[in-house]
Amino acid sequence: MYKVLRSRAHRFSTKTPSFFSTLLNNCLSLESLFSLKLIHAQLIKLSLCNTNTFLGNRCLHLYSKFGTIEDAIRSFDDIRNKNVFSWNIYMRVFINFGDIKSARQLFDEMPERDVVSWNSIIAGYYSRGFDDCALDLFSKMQTTGVIPSEYTYSIVLSFVQSVHHGKEIHCNMIRSGLDFSYVIIGNSLIDMYSKHGFVDYAFNVFLNMKELDVISWNSLIASCSKSGYKEMAYNHFRVMRTTNYLPDPFTISSVLTSCSTILDLRKGENIFSLSIKAGFLSNSIVSSAAIDMFSKCESINASIRVFKEIDIWDSAVCNSMISSYANHRLEENAMQIFALSFNKNVRPTEFTLSSVISCAVVFLVVVQGTQLHSLVVKLGFEHDLVVASSLVEMYSKYGSTDAAKIIFDEMEVKDLISWNTMISGLACTGKTVKSLNLFEELLKTGRQPDEITLSAVLLACNRGQLIDRAMAIFYSMDKEYGVKPTDGHFTSIVEMMIQAGKLNESLKVIEAMPYGPNSYICALILTIYGIHGDLKFTERVAERLMKLEPMSSLPYLVLGKAYEVRGRWESLARVKKAMNDRNITKVMGCSWIGIKSRLFLFKENEVVHHGGEDVFSTLRLLMQDIEVEAYI
């Protein structure tokens, strides 16, 4: 194109504005800044930018697309007869470059403003996160007599903060006589009602729309999926296929998400097959949804096959694979995917880092955790709510509650999950007083604790053996906080009483449990009272545990020991025979320790392991020293 321009430069003076308009269109298709500047220079030389406002606006528009802000400013100054389109394009330049302050100043100085001007500045504020300013401008727009267009309502409906405000705007649209045949308005209303969980309103809008498109169906299907009506989302997808509207990648990903939530592998496989036939599997949104669906439907091998076959390395796909591995307790594989994605220049998101930090906790190697923390700071995610909460949980599980508390205190915004994580972390490490004090701080903020918060508080009371305080909190949960005691809360109270030797009192609490004692309570009772306690009571508890956990060896072992100490050899023989018949074996206990980024596993009664000879040699020397000291 450059050669063509140079060869015809001497004849430019004879060309019409339409000729230059065609050249400028070519610059847009090629995104050639050099060619644009060359044509712009010729227009200035021929005084066409000064006299022809259309060509001046066209140059200004192109500079806003792929030029610099300085080029756009000079182009705007060259336009002698500026109209409202010139000002609108110029304002969009500042908005596109992120200078919303200069855009607002220019908006206030505009000699004339039309609906496009208002739409641009409202959308600009919304894109920068200033929703309140955008809403204020929308109100001022109506007072100045400018009638909002369908695009205005579409922008405003995308960020209304409550469904009541959305309903007001909906009524305003009806009163203004806006033609609801516009697809964009109907889709915006469906999306707005869906975000706030008003699926019935979204349905009414959908059914009353004169014209539909794929986005309309997508919005309705996503509405059902996000609001908990997963089966309905799948059924409407089937209805959509009977119409003339073909599903797109967003449709497929929404339906796959619905299948993963209802754990319907058969339906998910059908949708997955359809995505392959339609050629959508190369789309990262679809492939990540497929990986997530197979994982949640307990088909992790299928997730791995999809990940390997598509060979797509972007944040969405990698996040799905990492979370899939993490959810199936394959933390080492998740860390490997994270390392590979990092080597392939896939920038981690906050969700990636949160998943990986949760995996690092399992290895109990503090070095890995601190390295991930350094990466979080380097990438600028230290103030992200999700990542910060994961770091708090990680350091709490490492036992470094001081480090966790520092991160917690520096969090600019704390949600209930953050509070729960910190309270639970302090409780798990035995810092009862600090945990309960933090709970009091939470109550002072006006937030209502949930069942997880109260579970952490009861755990703190359990670790500190504060039975009276735990009972007071337990019996006031429903009345003061609106939380009905769950199985976990009953378990904490019963465990506390049993460990304190109050078996009779704990039995009264157990009788109040909606579904009877769970396996943990049964195991606890058998461990503490099973062998030397009342034999009939031991037998009843053991039978209960056998029903709850048929493959558990504990009830058989406790019963056998109880029969043995009482000399009931026939009963002991029956217990051993039952274990053999049911193929029940004793679970081998193990412990592990992390040293220099390596994890060492030690099984119960294990004699030979890595470095075992040196360990036992050292133990023998220690025993000799102890014996010598005993005789001195």
TrEMBL record:
Region forming the signal peptide: none
UniProt keyword annotations, A-Z: Repeat
Example GO molecular function: RNA binding
Gene3D superfamilies cross-referenced by the UniProt entry: Tetratricopeptide repeat domain (1.25.40.10)
Pfam families the record matches: E_motif, PPR, PPR_2
GO BP annotation list: RNA modification
PPR repeat windows: 83-113, 114-148, 213-247, 314-348, 415-449
NCBIfam families the UniProt entry points to: PPR
UniProt-recorded name of the protein: Pentatricopeptide repeat-containing protein
Top-level taxonomy: Eukaryota, Viridiplantae, Streptophyta, Embryophyta, Tracheophyta
